[in-house]
Specification:
By secondary structure, the chain is mainly α. Helix content is about 80%, strand content about 0%. Helix 2 packs antiparallel against helix 3, helix 2 runs antiparallel to helix 7 and helix 4 runs antiparallel to helix 7.
């Protein structure tokens, strides 16, 4: 039966988020935000500290939760990934506000430091690529790198969301997949039933022919058996008679 190969799947494959560049960068941005707050934002005097850390954490955690929920619900996956983007935008705004309120400088296009930063953030995704600098960069550098990473993550997530959107349009959500799977299974069962019902008369005819052939062979066997027995008894009687004759001659 081809039920397994043709079956409609309800659950989607689990995404390996650790292999996705935007998740890797979101891990970097969370650790960078935490290190930044530890160095430059007072633990008790500035509530921005908690907001920055929570926004960075919300981005990373909602990516994980969204991709995990995507196994069953594309709709929930889209919602949670968009929540991650919203947290990311909040985080970027906090870093921009920090630069503005402290009268620091934004790295701008045309500067060598901007080109170096853009190139580094584009091709480096893992925490190990950035962590050695967390204790070295100034607050201005950390803010600019954080803002740039936020832009890259947002662009990558938008591309991913567009892909999910297209999948949702073409494949539907969990309810559609469940309906297709159930309908497909019922259709397979109906087709199998029709196939069996169509084969039944042929099998019945083949059985009748086999029974008739068996009866014929049984009759032939009985006839052969009777003739063999008759011949056996005849020979046995002949042997007995010959022995009796030989016994009389000796006398």
């Amino acid at each position: 039966m081809a039920e397994t190969s043709n079956a409609q799947h309800v659950l989607k494959s689990q995404a390996n988020w650790d292999a996705l560049y935007f998740y890797q960068k979101s891990d970097v941005i969370y650790q960078l935000a935490f290190a930044f707050c530890e160095r430059f934002i007072h633990l008790y005097k500035d509530r921005t500290r908690d907001q920055v850390i929570q926004a960075a954490r919300s981005c990373k955690q909602n990516i994980v939760e969204g991709l995990a929920d995507g196994v069953a619900s594309t709709e929930m996956q889209l919602k949670l990934l968009n929540v991650a983007r919203a947290s990311l935008k909040e985080l970027r705004e906090d870093f921009e506000d920090y630069i503005k309120s402290r009268h620091l400088q934004f790295f701008i296009s045309g500067e060598q430091r901007y080109a170096d930063m853009l190139n580094y953030c584009r091709y480096h995704n893992r925490l190990s690529d950035y962590e050695p600098f967390f204790a070295q960069w100034t607050d201005e550098q950390m803010c600019n790198y954080a803002i740039t990473l936020c832009h890259f993550i947002d662009r990558m997530m938008m591309s991913f969301l567009k892909k999910l959107e297209q999948e949702f349009i073409t494949e539907g959500g969990i309810k559609e997949r469940m309906h297709r799977a159930r309908t497909g299974y019922r259709q397979q069962q109906d087709e199998r039933l029709k196939q069996l019902e169509a084969e039944l008369p042929r099998l019945k005819q083949a059985l009748a022919e086999a029974q008739a052939e068996a009866a014929k062979w049984k009759a032939a066997f009985e006839d052969l058996k009777q003739r063999a027995l008759k011949m056996y008894y005849s020979k046995e009687e002949e042997i007995k008679r010959l022995k009796e004759q030989l016994g009389e001659e000796k006398l």
